[in-house]
Specification:
about 425 residues, 3 domains, Enolase-like, domain 1, 9 helices, FAD/NAD(P)-binding domain, alpha/beta, about 20% helix
C-alpha cells in the first residue's frame, strides 16, 4: 500500500519534513495542510520582509514533491479511523499524520490591548485595538508595514529575539522605536548581561531605546493606541505597538482528538505521539521541553523524515543542545549552550571585548571542554566555534583560537 502522509500545519517544520522526506526518496504522497493563504515560508526572515529587504515570495520554502494545500485549515482529527476534517466540512484520509501546528503569539496581561477590555464581550470579542500588532505571519508583516509608513513612534513589548528584530526593522523604516522588556536584560535566554549591554548600545546607535526591568501595564488611546504605560507610571507615547512576548504551542487539535498534551503535544524520542501520529516543531514537547526555535524544529523534522521514509527507521531525536543565531540589519550574534557561568562554580570563562567595534566574545569552559559561547558583533569564527561545540570533546590547543583571527582585543580569563 502506498502511504498517505498528512502534515497538519504550514510552517517551517512542516516544510522541512516534506522536503527531507522527498529528498530521501520516501514512498507515497505527502500533503501539507496550512491555514494561511500561502505555502510555507521562513518566519525567521519576517523582520527583513518588514524592511523591504525581501518580499513574501523570496522567503518561500521548498517542499520537495509534496502537495501544498494553503488556506485549508484542519479543524478536527480522528486518529481511530485516520481521517482529518477541513474547515469546509470535507474529510481526508491518511496513513501517517505529522502534527506541525506551530505556536500562537502570547498576549501579555496589559490593560487596554483588546477591544473586549474596553467594551465587554459585545464590543467585538478580543480583537486587538488599532495600532497593536503581532508579528507571526506574512499578513501580520504587511499590516505592520502599511501602518509604519505614517507612524512616528513605536513601542515593542518584549525584548527577545523577535522583539529586537522587529524594533530594528521599525527603526530602519524611520520610526522612533522603544523596547519594553520585563527581564533585567535583552534576550536573557541566550545572552549574558554584558553581551546584552553591548547589544543595547548597538540598538541605541540604530535608533532604538531599551527599557529593561520594566513591565508594560496598560495601553491608552481609545480605539487606537496612543501610549503605553509602564508599571512605574511612566508613559511612552506611540502610534504603533508590537507584541513580542513569546509563543504558546497550538495544541487544541491534538487535545480535542484525545492525544497526550501538556504544554505542547507530547512526543517520545521517535517523535511519536500515538500509533501513526507524530509531532515536530513549536507544537511538540520532548522530555519536558518545548524549544520554540527553528533549529530544533528542523532537527526534529529531519529525524522524522528519516524514520518515515525508511532511510533510517530507528532514528531517534535525543534533544537539542541550546544554540541560536541572529543576523539582521547591523545586529548579529551567535550563542551556544550554557552562557551563564554563575550557575556552576566548576566553569571557567574566556572573555574578549572590543569597545571600538562593539563586539563581545565569550567562551564557557569546563576544563578543556566547551560548554557554552557567545559571539556578538563579530562572527568571523562562528563556524569553528559551532564545530567545536558540536564535537563536544576536548579542545585541541588553547581555546583563544575560537575567538580570534588576528583581531586586537582586550580580555580576561577566570
Amino acid at each position: 500500500m502506498t502511504p498517505r502522509i498528512a502534515v497538519v500545519g504550514g510552517g517551517m517544520a512542516a516544510a522541512r519534513f516534506a522536503e527531507r522526506y522527498g529528498a530521501l526518496g520516501g514512498p507515497g504522497t505527502v500533503t501539507v495542510y496550512g491555514a494561511e493563504p500561502r505555502a510555507p515560508y521562513n518566519r525567521v526572515l519576517l523582520a527583513e520582509v518588514l524592511t523591504g529587504r525581501y518580499d513574501a515570495e523570496s522567503i518561500a520554502l521548498p517542499l520537495g514533491g509534496a502537495t501544498a494545500r494553503p488556506g485549508c485549515e484542519v479543524v478536527a482529527l480522528d486518529p481511530r479511523v485516520r481521517t482529518l476534517r477541513l474547515a469546509d466540512g470535507s474529510t481526508e484520509a491518511w496513513d501517517e499524520l505529522v502534527l506541525a501546528t506551530g505556536a500562537n503569539p502570547v498576549l501579555p496581561p496589559v490593560r487596554g490591548l483588546r477591544r473586549a477590555d474596553r467594551h465587554g464581550p459585545a464590543g467585538g470579542g478580543h480583537t486587538l485595538i488599532e495600532g497593536v500588532h503581532t508579528l507571526r505571519t506574512v499578513e501580520d508583516c504587511a499590516r505592520l508595514a502599511e501602518e509604519a509608513v505614517g507612524a512616528k513612534r513605536a513601542v515593542v513589548i518584549g525584548g527577545g529575539v523577535l522583539g529586537v528584530s522587529a524594533a530594528r526593522a521599525l527603526a530602519a523604516l524611520g520610526v522612533r522605536t522603544e523596547i519594553v522588556h520585563q527581564a533585567p536584560h535583552l534576550i536573557e535566554g541566550q545572552l549574558d548581561g554584558e553581551a546584552a549591554e553591548v547589544l543595547r548600545e548597538r540598538l541605541r546607535a540604530l535608533g532604538v531605546e531599551c527599557y529593561t526591568g520594566n513591565r508594560a501595564r496598560a495601553v491608552h488611546g481609545g480605539e487606537r493606541v496612543g501610549a503605553v504605560e509602564l508599571a512605574g507610571g511612566y508613559r511612552l507615547d506611540c502610534d504603533l505597538v508590537v507584541l513580542a512576548c513569546g509563543t504558546r504551542p497550538r495544541t487544541a487539535l491534538a487535545h480535542a482528538a484525545g492525544l497526550p498534551v501538556a504544554t505542547g503535544v507530547l512526543v517520545d524520542d521517535a517523535l511519536a505521539v500515538a500509533p501513526h501520529v507524530h509531532a515536530v516543531g513549536d507544537c511538540a514537547e520532548h522530555r519536558g521541553t518545548v524549544h520554540g526555535l527553528a533549529g530544533p524544529a528542523w532537527e526534529q523534522a529531519d529525524v522524522l523524515a528519516r524514520r518515515l521514509s525508511g532511510a533510517e527507521p530507528d532514528a531517534r531525536y535525543p534533544g537539542t543542545r541550546p544554540r541560536a543565531r541572529l543576523s539582521t540589519g547591523g545586529l548579529e550574534y551567535a550563542a551556544f549552550g550554557t552562557v551563564d557561568e554563575t550557575l556552576d562554580p566548576g566553569l571557567d570563562v574566556l572573555r574578549l571585548t572590543d569597545a571600538t567595534r562593539g563586539s563581545y566574545k565569550k567562551l564557557v569552559l569546563r576544563g578543556d571542554r566547551l560548554v557554552g559561547a557567545i559571539l556578538l558583533g563579530d562572527l568571523a569564527t562562528v563556524d569553528a566555534l559551532a564545530g567545536a561545540f558540536a564535537d563536544d570533546g576536548a579542545l585541541a590547543g588553547h581555546p583563544l583560537h575560537l575567538l580570534t583571527q588576528g583581531t586586537a582585543m582586550t580580555g580576561d580569563m577566570r
